[in-house]
Design brief:
binds iron/sulfur cluster, alpha/beta, 296 residues
């Protein structure tokens, strides 16, 4: 089976302090960190074993907090990117850590979903970190939340990053109807697909790959179908992918998050993102420097 696995362990802490984030104030205890490490080791070991089962996996780490500050995540991503039956391994990160370890990645398979937090880092540092990935030909997208206070920073980061780096903007949805039409147009000049994210999609009773070939794995092995539906559908290590997989219609009224609605077959989004769907890189932004042509 070809499957997408989102993975989130017990970690819930971050080295940044974003005011809008519940994990910024959190410090994980030593015990929690050890638990997180063991959970990840179990997961990687399970992934290793899937080669004999002939499963092809794409893996996306979406931690509560920042994972790459912990060695076990860097090692896991490096190993997974070099496994033949793993097609893709991507991670959400603020890209604050040293990046020397990325030379060991399989560049054809590793990818970064990089979030930019203007209040937490200097733009020059952030851009220099991005360029370390760029110069190695490692795929990444850069994005941020479209808060009104961040508009200028968002536009500026778009300007200074190479043209073939996709900059996405996540709509701020804590307040309904937050954007004026002019603002939507303004942010669409940064992210041509911003409007897709502004909307919430009616999803109840509709087909969705979540729970069929897309799974949300929690640290202990419990599996949910998606980021939104809290119901547990089984246990990865007991049931395996075949045991978990079933066609399921969506049970939620709305789906409004990229990591969810991209798995609805009715969305035309797959044609736009192609192989970069998971890490959010539209095909038109495949790094030209990979072909030897810099677009800085
Ligand atoms: S970088 Fe991300 S996880 Fe860390 S505090 Fe900011 S929003 Fe939260
Ligand atoms: S449409 Fe969205 S909310 Fe519904 S199952 Fe799929 S990912 Fe979950």
């Amino acid at each position: 089976m070809k499957a997408v696995l989102y993975y989130r362990g017990s970690l819930s802490s971050c080295n940044y302090d974003c005011p809008y984030c519940p994990f910024s104030k959190n410090k994980d205890s030593k015990e929690t960190l050890m638990k997180d490490k063991q959970q990840l080791e179990t997961f990687v070991s399970w992934v290793r074993d899937q080669e004999v089962e002939r499963h092809e996996l794409s893996i996306f780490f979406n931690p509560y907090g920042e994972a790459l500050v912990h060695r076990w995540y860097r090692e896991a991503i490096t190993e997974l990117s070099n496994l033949s039956h793993v097609n893709k391994v991507a991670v959400q990160t603020n890209l604050s850590v040293k990046l020397d370890w990325t030379t060991e990645l399989n560049k054809k398979k590793a990818a970064f979903w990089v979030t930019y937090h203007p209040g937490q880092t200097k733009e020059s540092f952030f851009v220099s970190q991005c360029m370390k990935l760029y110069e190695q030909g490692i795929s990444f997208s850069v994005g941020t939340v479209g808060l009104r206070s961040a508009f200028e920073d968002i536009e500026h980061i778009r300007k200074v990053l190479p043209k073939d780096v996709y900059v996405w903007v996540n709509a701020f949805k804590d307040r309904s109807n937050y954007y004026t039409q002019e603002e939507i147009e303004r942010l669409s000049r940064v992210d041509p697909y911003f409007e897709w994210n502004v909307r919430d999609y009616d999803s109840l009773g509709k087909k969705c790959g979540a729970g069929s070939n897309v799974f949300y794995v929690q640290g202990p092995g419990l599996v949910k179908r998606c980021y939104k539906d809290r119901r547990v559908i089984g246990h990865l290590y007991r049931e395996g992918l075949e045991g978990l997989s079933a066609e399921r219609l969506c049970g939620m009224k709305k789906c409004g998050c990229y990591i969810g609605y991209i798995h609805m077959p009715e969305m035309p989004i797959r044609e736009v993102y192609g192989d970069g769907l998971l890490e959010r890189i539209p095909t038109g932004y495949v790094h030209a420097h990979r072909e030897g042509e810099a677009l800085v």
